[in-house]
Amino acid sequence: MNYHTGDIIKVTVTSIENYGIFVTVDEEYNGMIHISEMSDKFVTNVRNYAYPGETIYAKVIDVDNTKYQIKLSIKSIDYRITTRKGNIMESPNGFSKLKEMLPIWIEKKMQEIECSA
After folding, report:
1. Considering Cα of 50, then 35, then 15, then 24, what sign does the dihedral take?
2. What is the count of structural domains for the chain?
3. Residue 62 domain-assigned (yes or no)
4. Which CATH number do you get for residue 52?
């Protein structure tokens, strides 16, 4: 596939490092969104912008057709892909916090019910 500077394309996040987000573009091309291409503001945590496995939009800023690599940007576009209104999206840490807290909340509520009876 031919990619050109300025194209907005769908990519899938494969990994995140402190300096950028790595993505798969298609079967041939990979890409990276450098921390400097995430926001016009200071980026304190790259992981606040995407998570592994997420599909997002990105703007092509440079293409290397010999290495099959693309430099991308998300800072000037609406990069999030929304599937359906009202979907609950799992965080990068999963629902582990909910799993951890649910038994505590149930126990607390049961005590409240017993005390009011």
Report:
1. positive
2. 1
3. yes
4. 2.40.50.140
Tokens of 34: 């450098």
Each residue of 87-114: b (16+ CB within 10 Å) or e? eeeeeeeeeeeeeeeeeeeeeeeeeeee
pLDDT tens by residue, 15-39: 999 999 999 999 999 999 999 999 9
Residues in the chain: 117
pTM for the model stands at: 0.69
Instruction: Kindly state whether residue 2 falls inside one of the protein's structural domains.
Output: no
Is 33 in contact with 100 (CB distance < 8 Å)?
no
Q: Which two tokens stand for residue 62?
A: 């440079």
CA 74/CA 90 separation, integer angstroms: 21
Q: What angle do CA 70, 60, 31 make, to 5 degrees?
A: 25
